[in-house]
Amino acid sequence: MTNTTTNTKKKNISHLSIIWRRLSRSKTAIIGLFIVGLYVLTAIFGPYLAPHDPIAQDLSKTFLAPSAQHLMGCDEFGRDIFSRIIHGARVSLIIQFNSVVIALVIGIALGAMGGYFGGLVDEIIMRLMDVMLAFPGMLLALAIVAMLGPNLTNLIVAIGIYSVPQFARVTRGAVISVKKNEYVTAAKAIGESDFSIITRYVLPNALSPIIVQTTLRMATVLLTAAGLGFLGLGVQPPTPEWGTMLSGARMYLRTAPFVAFFPGLAIMLVVLGFNFFGDGLQDALNPRLKE
Amino acid sequence: MGRFIVRRLILAIPVLIGVSIIAFLILHLSPGDPAELLAGDEATQADIQMIREKFGLDQPLTTQYFRFIKGIATGELISMKYEVPVMEIVGKRLKNTLILSSVAIAISVIVGIMAGILSAVHRYSWIDYVATVVALLGVSMPVFWWGLLMILLFSVNLMWLPSGGMGGFRHMIMPAIALGTASAGIIARMTRSSMLDVLQQDYITTAVAKGLRQKLVVYRHALRNALIPTVTVIGLQFGYMLAGAVLTESVFSWPGIGRLIVDSIMGRDYPVVQTALLIIALIFVLANLVVDVLYALLDPRIRYND
Known about the structure:
The complex is a heterodimer. By secondary structure, chain A is mainly alpha-helical. Chain A is built from eleven helices and no strands. In chain B, about 80% of the residues lie in helices and about 0% in strands. Chain B has twelve helices and no strands. Chain B has helices at about 1-30, 35-40, 45-55, 60-75, 85-120, 125-140, 145-155, 170-200, 200-210, 215-250, 255-265, 270-300. Chain B starts with a helix and ends in an 8-residue tail after the last helix. The interface between A and B is large, with 44 and 47 residues.
């Protein structure tokens, strides 16, 4: 028994090291990983290190240009933009993480059920997903936020729900291809329950496309949240969310362009990081690509 | 092929019914009474009740739903805010968005396909590297930020272009570029990868071995097949643009359907939001259908015989 566990562990480690070797060969993937890592660290520890209070107003510092004291300058209320960007990383990560978790849980459950059982169950689930996908882009999230009212929780729920079909489709596809394997037929033959077969045999082997989709979706989700914030339908001020910050700054484009510049730059860098990393993962996890 | 189209059209019907139910329910389940909002702060209970009766808001939800569908079909649905037929407002705004999206898609197709071909032909060269990074930047850039940066440069500093509104051709340049940038990036990446696939195939090797000029091989032999997946992406991008225009229209004060939706959500003008959502979804579903048909027409290997 112990021997088997050690073997499995060894196998997992060598599998991970193969993926890492493939991933590290791509320069862009490493840059992406670095940006994502820095972003996550900023979101976790940044607020303790931020030089100023992100919400405290000081009207004597209104539109102060970037300097050693205020690296990115001050906004229309004299708040330190650098500190707001740092705190904004936490807000963004909270939105991304929670909404993707919502989408993952519901999407994987629906996709796995559809793919595994097929037939009428599959038909009903996939038609429902088609209806959701018929609202292109961020339209569904926008409509849901409009229904629930704009605040952080509702934004997370809206973006989570609008991301469900993507995960359902990817999971369904992966499950359909995995369930043809003999070990699934064997598990059925020895009388394991459907739930146990799905969770123990099917899903673990269908993980790669789901991981890739999760990484790439983190980028889309951030852009959507920022977009809704920009429209005034996202996180409400004074909470420092990057899209909402940009929305406030557009009024002062002529007098203080730096107020709009930095939040946009932050969004772009983080989205780029997730895209780079997701692309690299896609290649690294693709079994068709030989060593 | 005819049977395939008919089958796809029939399959689209339940999706569209679902879409209409979602579009209808989304606003009806939202907090806040639209009658109160429309009546204003100084309205009496009687005024509010009158508005409710006028727009049928006191009816059961199912009755309201069928009234909504009938109103759209007959064109009699009335905007609660402007009190004119919804189709009139939505139609005008949709036209503006379609104009913007068409120019944007044209820009993204030209730039995207050119960049994709260059990348594939000069694989792993500096051209490929620059094109790939620029394409990814385009995909990652928030459209509203990109729009603001362009306004800052071309309107505020250089004073070459108007910063917003709808007018002549000059008004269209920046919003169309902003809206088309992400799609250009996606199209470039798609073209690059499918071009690379095609360039590795035997018939291309044969064409090169025959001594044909590289340009002829690339544009005559490879591009045709490489563009098939790109066509799919272009079709989908057009649908996304209709929705993505919400942000671009907001930055450039373009009077399109996206801004109409946002304004109407804020003002709780149910009929306008519902109709606009429904129409965008309808166009998107039809665009998907057109893409599937085109795919079959372009690639003789794909046949929809079922």
